[in-house]
Structure formats: structure tokens, C-alpha cells
């Protein structure tokens, strides 16, 4: 599925081919909460990195999160979160650990996206205490990470764009 996205001020526009375009996975980790705003739930989609085209690269910033370790130490995440330096919009995540993939934030996508048949709420152990997480029949709530990947979830629901 061809996705087109942009930042709020319009200085950055991008497009890419998504193989996993259904926005089902909401992350409540402290990184998403602090960098994406709102209730702290960021929704990443799965796209092919070699299809990413960007207009306005001069307005891009990259943030690599500091991750606290159990032993009290801190490491820098390899994941690169791209955002607009003018308006602050979170745009996509790229990790060199998976060089074939790019993960656009659903909030930055301008193309109409498919409705998910279920929503997975992950890393609820990190959510802000004031956030109320939907808990309907089509909501899955997880304290940590899901056992299946974006691709596996899309495949299980017959939604993978191969």
C-alpha cells in the first residue's frame, strides 16, 4: 500500500510502500509517551525502507533515545526517530538492526488507513497513570512486548501486503 505522510507544518513530506499498513499496535513506553505526545501511544506501521522518498530533508531531526538499563547504566538506542525540526512532528523510526524496514508513525500519515480488526496495547507497564486504555472485546492489553511481529499480526489477520 502506498503511504503518503507529512509533518504538521508541511515542511517535510514523505511516501513509502507499506507491507504492514494497519495501525493496530499502540505503544505506551516512556519514549513514545515523551516524543509522540498525547496519551503516549504511538502507532508504527511497517514499510520497505528502500521505497522511502522524502521532500524537505533539511527540516529533519533525528533522536536516538537513552535507554536505562536494569543495572543503573544507560545506553543509546540504535533506533533513529525522525521528526520535523520546525514543528516537532514525529514522522518515522528507522533501526539499522532491520535495514530493510522503516516504521512510519500512523499519526503522520495522510493516506486513509485500514481499520484494524483488533488493537494491541503494549508496554502498559510504562504508561502514564492518568491514561485510560481501551479494554473492549477487540483490545489486547500487554504489560510488555507482544509475541508476534507487525508482519506476523498482519499475516494472521490476512492483511499483509506482499
Description:
It comes from Pseudoxanthomonas suwonensis (strain 11-1). It holds the Pfam family GFA. Residues 3-141 form the CENP-V/GFA domain. With 162 residues, the chain is mainly beta. It has one domain: Metal Binding Protein, Guanine Nucleotide Exchange Factor, Chain A. 9% of the residues lie in helices and 34% in strands. It has two helices and 14 strands; from the N terminus they run βββαβββββββββββα. The strands form three sheets. Strands 1, 2, 5, 6, 7, 10, 11 and 12 form an eight-stranded antiparallel β-sheet that branches. It has a four-stranded mixed β-sheet with strand order 4-3-13-14. A two-stranded antiparallel sheet has the order 8-9. Strand 1 (2-6) and strand 2 form a beta hairpin. The chain starts with a strand and ends in a 6-residue tail after the last helix. The mean pLDDT is 92.
Summed up, what is this model?
Helices cover 9% and strands 34% of the residues. The chain is mainly beta. The mean pLDDT is 92.
What global shape is seen? globular
Task: Describe the sheet with the most strands.
Answer: 8 strands, antiparallel
Number of domains: 1
The number of helices is 2
> Any idea what the radius of gyration is?
16 Å
Task: Provide the CATH architecture.
Answer: Beta Complex
List the secondary-structure elements in sequence, H or E. EEEHEEEEEEEEEEEH
- The CATH class turns out to be Mainly Beta
Beta-strand portion reads: 25-35%
GO molecular function: carbon-sulfur lyase activity; metal ion binding
Organism: Pseudoxanthomonas suwonensis (strain 11-1)
Family: Belongs to the Gfa family.
Pfam families: GFA (PF04828)
